[in-house]
Design a protein that fits this description.
The chain has 205 residues and is α/β, with parallel strands linked by helices. The chain has one domain: Rossmann fold (3-Layer(aba) Sandwich). 36% of the residues lie in helices and 9% in strands. The longest helix is centred in the C-terminal third of the chain and has 12 residues. The chain is globular. The two termini are 24 Å apart. The model has no long low-confidence stretch (mean pLDDT 93).
Length: 205
């Protein structure tokens, strides 16, 4: 999560959506930089407004550019699974390298539900209203970052470095029809948000 007083932006860092690479470029332009998960990197908009209300009040809300990245639900679920199969997680409760996707659904997700909640919940206010001026589709990431580059005058976003990529352990073709349906049902609001808002700049009054 990055908040800039000088550039007047808030970047909400979703999980498994190139947030580390985006932060690498944007961090020098932000006065508040939360770059590690244990210190609030992936906090939601609501958590930000609760934790940093005093700081957010220093910028006119009408001038603040809020953005983040949302991912196709199946790609998102697979990335969460594959990322936690890395050896660095071996021996930890969130390690997935010793399970198949069925066990991931039945045992891992209930324990780490926050990581598999609808992504759109990170980008809404207390009334459930979308707050982002730009919700970038991960499948069209560079297209969205080009919009941000123009809006914030940060050309480096046009050449985003690759960072923190997940290994490919399980792919879509490995999922059963029931598993795909399970992902789609619990992520219906994400699919609707992508269809309605992705890469379409929004101005709020």
């Amino acid at each position: 999560m990055l908040f800039s007083l000088s550039k007047k932006f808030l970047f909400i860092a979703n999980l498994k959506t190139a947030s580390t690479a985006i932060e690498r470029v944007l961090a020098p332009h932000a006065e508040l930089r939360l770059l590690q998960s244990q210190y609030g990197k992936h906090q939601t908009y609501l958590q930000f407004t609760e934790n940093f209300k005093w700081l957010a009040g220093r910028v006119d809300a009408r001038e603040l550019f809020i953005f983040g990245v949302i991912r196709d639900p199946i790609g998102y679920a697979l990335s969460v699974f594959n990322f936690h199969a890395k050896n660095e997680f071996r021996g930890q409760p969130n390690f997935t390298g010793n399970m198949d996707f069925a066990r991931f659904v039945s045992t891992w997700v209930p324990k780490f539900a926050d990581q598999m909640k609808p992504q759109i919940s990170r980008f809404v206010d207390a009334r459930g209203k979308l707050v982002t001026n730009l919700l970038i589709s991960y499948d069209r990431l560079q297209e969205g970052l080009d919009i941000v580059a123009d809006r914030l005058d940060i050309p480096a976003l046009r050449n985003l470095p690759r960072d923190n990529e997940s290994p490919r352990v399980v792919g879509r073709s490995d999922l059963s029809a029931e598993q795909i349906a399970w992902i789609e049902e619990r992520s219906r609001t994400d699919t609707e948000a992508i269809a309605q808002y992705a890469n379409k700049p929004i101005r709020f009054d």
